[in-house]
Amino acid sequence: MISTANSALLDDLVTANHILVNEGVLDGFGHISVRHDKNPELFLIARSMAPALVTRKDIVCCNLEGQVIDPHGVTSYVERFIHSEIFKVRPEINSVIHSHSPAIIPFGVTGERLRPICHMSGFLGATTPVYEIRNSVGENSDLLIRNQSLGRDLAKVLSNNSVALLRGHGNVCVGVSIQQAVYRAIYTENNAKLQLQARPLGEINYLSDAEALATAEMNDQHLERPWQMWKRNAQNAKFS
Length: 240
Hints:
It is built from 8 helices and 7 strands, in the order αβββαβαβααββααα. It is an alpha+beta fold and 240 residues long. The relative contact order is 0.17. The model has no long low-confidence stretch (mean pLDDT 95).
């Protein structure tokens, strides 16, 4: 199934792993997927490994049940069900990122909502929902989305939003393309940093709903500009 995927798509998936590490969104953990361009019932993701080390030979194919379609028994991430369940209910989404992006964690464990503070993060909208795993399995979990049921619950909380936080765990960002998902993951982290910096200074004047929508639509027209810069920076960092 990997061999049938567009070569450029595979290259972009590898590059996205490296970009997200280089920009401080992923570290030794986290993952990004992309829907298979020939079969929407499949998606591509790396085998279970550090994102900085991903190459094309590390990409595996999964179905929307979260099963790895690989004759050699290669395994992918435990939390691949984040991806499968979102792809299942959001047909317009073609890329999903799960990270432990550090500045975002405080917003998942406090009453402080993550909201768009600048024009680059209008895609956050008025409300960034928080998934509470205790509502699914009580207080004895390891916080990982390790099965279809938990993936389904997370997808419900994400709903039609671009980003959802996972209490004490991180976040998930989605996009219609790898480039859009990467943009959103990076600027979600940037927005969280700015919000944390602004809060001690006084009341924050957030983007209005209309401003958030307008800025998101505008930035979506220019995704290639930051993508090419992030790609070059990752290449210079010699991840592969």
